[in-house]
Fold this protein.
Amino acid sequence: MDDVLVRTLADIVKVGAPIVLAAIGETLTERGGVVNLALDGSLVLSALAAFVVGTSTSSVIVGTLAGISVGSLIALIVAACSIELRLSQVAVGFVLTLLCRDLALFLGIPYRNAQVFPTTFLPIPVLKDIPVIGAIFFNQDLFTYLSFIAVAVAWWWLFRTKAGLTLRAVGERPQAAFARGVNVNRIRYLYTALGGSLVGLGGAAYTLGVLPTWSDTGIAGNGWIALAIVIFGGWHPLRVAFGVYLVAGLRTIVTSIQAQVPPQVVELLNALPWLLMLLTLFLVSGPYLDRLMKVLPPRLHPPIRTLLRARPPSALGTVFEQEGRS
Amino acid sequence: MSQPAKFFGTALTFSGALSAALLLIAIIMLSLDKAPIAAGQRFLEGAIGTPSARADVVMAALPMLLCAAGLLLTFTAGLWNIGVEGQVTMGAIFATIIARTIPRDVSDWGVLAALILPAELLLAMFGGALWAGLAALLKIRGGINEIFGGVALNFISVNILLSLVNGPWRVGTFPQTAPFAPAALLPRHPELRLSPLAIVIALTAFVVVFVALRGTRFGLALRAIGRNARSAGILGVRVERNIFWAMVACGALAGLAGAFQALFTRGRLLPNISGGIGFMGVLIVLLVGVRAAWVLPVALFIATVPVGSLKLATSLDSSVQIDAALGNVFQGALVLAVLIGSGIRARLAARRKEQFEHG
């Protein structure tokens, strides 16, 4: 395979890593029935926290932990407002996303153009020498490996463990799960916090890995992309990861041809990921999929339905009134 | 609960939330070695101390009022029209289609000159309505949640805006159009930075929305859909049609707000023309909890924040000089505190009721 292509693919995997982490976190949260709409603001604020703490302690690990704490704290606010106060998750999340982003923009002013953080580049000795695969997947920085692990573990956890089954039950049929003895609200707290910490890890991946410096403009907006990709990916970790790489790929292509086309065309090309997602969802979740099905042989129907399913968890965004507490 | 007790409760929630938000800002200021009290005085002086400052506040409130008025319609129907930001942007773009072609001298245009402004404003309303209609169609025909569709269309509208000001509409070294000719702008008060026509238009729009919500079949249908869309449908309300028109009406008002931004506030088209006023509209509606009558005073109150913060940001006194971004933090913190405060109040009321019922 030619060199440019391998380098481009390696780049896509790298720039996609923070969005993968955030989107996988949100997938777990939403599978439990909670929407963390504060994702975009969380991503920016945790990125700033990771950068400030990381540079002042000159430790990647302490910085990353700071990012994770900020992300999970914001997610816990959303969960508490929903579970304890019965507030709309969308309202709280939307206000929080604006608040956290503005807070990060304000508090980050002194750190603009701050020094570049020491690299977290971490090639894996033997594996990186495998032709093509090694160059794309094992010649990366720390956070990129974490994004691979997050996808694999999230998939395995959701579909191959009892705990994952419980989580999906809580998001689909909380009443039924409760009747089987599951503490629905505790599960929701747990996975909202877990999802939030993955978002925080994604923020840290920006300022300590991908960029690696503090830049609000380089981060804000990516949280909305992650939220959209969770829907685009049908709440399935592997499809979510695929969606992220598709979007990251489109962006990389646009960046690479930037010099050859006029600026007005570049700006329009930047809208492609959103157009692609809108169009796909429109075709998949509307009545058009059924029309397509009529043309195809019935044998193909079940696999296509699983592949393109875009139905949210049934109890997404709702409040569960657990008995025995008010 | 009795009416005065309810009012007292609301007042308590708001003042508690306001204190919490102010406390947060004071803590941030103290940690940066700024003087919060002096900054507060400076802020009030800069926002409401002089006639020209008050005029700025009124003009800043108008686009927010328009967005909030439109959002009252969609929120009443239970729709989260996050796409309002993109609808503002499209309004500004569509107004510019005409505004940028108007020459400096229109003295020989005669009657046509009087049609420039109405044409610009109508086209802006069309642009906003188009974008909102698109989000509504995606929801109704494609089953795409209006939040997701709105976010996507927001980003696409920004891409279109940047494409235009970087390309065909660009004049000069910066990505922006040339300043519009006076005939293309909203007419200005001779002394103050104030447009009486804009005030009349915005207030009229607000009153129309208010009346539509209170006293028309459309308003009743929207309220029924907001309570329970399925029941409303069973009872004969045309859910999809009403959702579509609520979105389109909101988009038209947001488009008008965009025209105000381009034809008065900025006087040209440039990146970030909306300046987040669509989202501020959402915050206002969340703040008043969809109680329409409160939108007007709250919009004026919220509009003091950017005006006053800008005065602080440009202050020469370093003990109060602080970036205007802190104003946005205050707005967000205030709305969050009000949401949490009213949530706590509702829980306490529910608990009291429960105890009462169980003896």
